[in-house]
């Protein structure tokens, strides 16, 4: 998948800056991703298909696609959004959505294009109603949390109104906290007539979160600044403070269940965090490493204690952190490894995250 394609889906970070609080945040991504352990259940695709062979599911957000597959129901899925890319097998399914903005350029350029669409009251994505009808879906999975970071409930309802030969059930997700995510997993499991699979997946996630918390229980807590968009900067809200807490840290920005806050480099310097983690939504490690290079131009960045002491890390924000689904467990493991490497080793370093190395810039600029 192209670098340009991966850049297109960084609208999550943009959405939080552009919308009213009650509409903010969902996750989106469009990159080939490293494969890590997932919470797949004993129920296999084959058993799910045998249970209800005619059920056809279209998932229009990346997180619901991951949840559906973690429930063991991947073979029920017949269509996806352009953002759905995990597990890799879903890339063989037809994508029936696309962005309305040019996806070329860096984070600041994408921010400007999406901002322009939103200010005009336009949708950022479109659903191909003809392609949707051709799939004859029984269930459509979407979200009503954010109008610009992923295909919205409004976009889906508009497309469904055009269907002549289908009357699908629409399941709309609205996650802000881990409990909300557990609820959404249950809603998807109910929609595919397998509520027990949902209960098993939630229990598995809770058990793994508890294991992480136990590992770091006796460790000193680190103050962590999580940055999910670089230009302009934004920190992580919603479920991110919960993940940081479970991993043995304290979030210096963001409040559980609340939208991700805008911040500045001055805010980060004033907070003086022990650790900084940068994981822009929709960007893999390769793109993230390019996006953070300009930070070295700023004296305020070079002078931060976390930067001087080598406690800045870059993580894959496309695969982790920003999708409210099963891989939030691995996201929490990444944070635990970063903050408490002496007691936590989940084998994620190098693939899921790396230590930031600052290339000295020739020009040092001041931050206004």
UniProtKB/TrEMBL annotation:
Pfam families: Peripla_BP_2 (PF01497)
Domain Fe/B12 periplasmic-binding: 56-343
Residues spanning the membrane: none
PANTHER family recorded: VITAMIN B12-BINDING PROTEIN
Protein name: Fe/B12 periplasmic-binding domain-containing protein
Species per Swiss-Prot/TrEMBL record: Hyphomicrobium sulfonivorans
Lineage: Bacteria, Pseudomonadati, Pseudomonadota, Alphaproteobacteria, Hyphomicrobiales
